[in-house]
Amino acid sequence: MSLLSGPELARYDRHIILPEVGLAGQERLKQSRVLIVGCGGLGSPVALYLAAAGVGHLGLVDFDQVDASNLQRQILHGTSTIGRSKLESAEARLLNLNPYVRFERYETRLSAQNALEIIRGYDVVVDGTDNFATRYLVNDACVLLGVPNAYGSIYRFEGQASVFAADGGPCYRCLFRQPPPAGAVPNCAEGGVLGVLPGLVGTIQATEAIKLLLGIGRPLVGELLLVDALEMRFRRVKVRKDPGCPACGTRTIQSLEEIDAVCELPPPEGAPGRDLSVAALAERRRSGWNPYLLDVREPHEWTIGRIDGAVLIPLGALPRRLAEIPADRDVVVYCKGGVRSRQAVEALLEAGFGRVENLEGGILAWSAEIDPSIPRY
């Protein structure tokens, strides 16, 4: 007797007639368990296609809420779910797509304390994260538990996909041994991303997950697929298992450790207290304080919105335009979220400016707390 009901047999008919899938393969999908880490840009197409494919049990990990700025690419969510938990929004959408799938929600940040417990018992993990700290946690947990990791990442117009931690194959640390230095790599919030790109890469991840579950085709084990959306070019790069890899090679990594959020820069060394809250800036300006307000974003961001009285000098142009900044005034630096402005503060301090402060949270915090007329992007 089939594990699939009559309505399910009709629903998955186009799968079942594929010789590579068949009834046995569709039943295998129904019995499979896949964990999706992140219900954002990558997690959206992954979750939609795996649910539609009939993967019987989907775990969803996220702790964020739906924001209007998500909707350009995060197709799990909609205008009506702005402000709601992403997991609530995702589950409602996915149940409407396929009521025969069971969902397990993990409304928490994946951490060294909970990653093994959450991932244990799943057949495949799909990495839809947007930060290095969680990416390395997912990799190390998958290696320790022997669970394949369908990896993907995106930035601006380019993406990557691979399968890590599969039997005999390399892991993410074989390719990138350690996280990059703090502030060296901007995230999508800082650098932007083409809205359709996560759909492209996420669909590849979902495809790899299904291939792994069914044992068909040639998964991207030992290969990194590079996607250039502007040129619509796909390129494969061989990734060899590194015998010296501390995760899957020497097995030096025996437990999980929390990794610092490397996309964020610490305050300049020896300069405690140089972060200024948006509330403090607004209050002090109302009291007559008139600092030189330096915006180090890019011109296209400046056109979206700015803080009144600010002067634009993009971070890349700062070294050659230092003479434009008055040395006899207090300087407050801001960017979108606080990463580039901290780099600018360090540069100004090294150049001899002594009265420099970084605006915590950047223009996004200013928009949220002080001036909501400034668009969030």
Strand content: 15-25%
User: Biggest sheet: strands side by side, in what order?
Assistant: 3-2-1-4-5-6-7-8
- DSSP, total strands: 13
Order of helices and strands: HHHEHEHEHEHEEHHHEEEHEHEEHEH
CATH architect. name of the largest domain: 3-Layer(aba) Sandwich
How would you portray this structure in words?
The protein has 377 residues and is α/β, with parallel strands linked by helices. The chain contains 14 helices and 13 strands. It has an eight-stranded mixed beta sheet with strand order 3-2-1-4-5-6-7-8, with helices on both faces. Strands 9-13-12-10-11 form a five-stranded parallel beta sheet. β1, α4 (43-53) and β2 form a beta-alpha-beta unit. The model is unreliable at 261-273 (pLDDT under 50).
Secondary-structure topology with pairs:
Elements: H1 6-11, H2 13-16, H3 22-30, E1 33-37, H4 43-53, E2 57-61, H5 86-97, E3 102-106, H6 115-119, E4 124-127, H7 132-145, E5 149-155, E6 158-164, H8 172-175, H9 188-191, H10 197-214, E7 223-228, E8 233-238, E9 275-276, H11 278-286, E10 292-295, H12 299-304, E11 311-312, E12 331-334, H13 339-350, E13 356-359, H14 362-369
Parallel strand pairs: 1-2, 1-4, 2-3, 4-5, 9-13, 10-11, 10-12, 12-13
Antiparallel strand pairs: 5-6, 6-7, 7-8
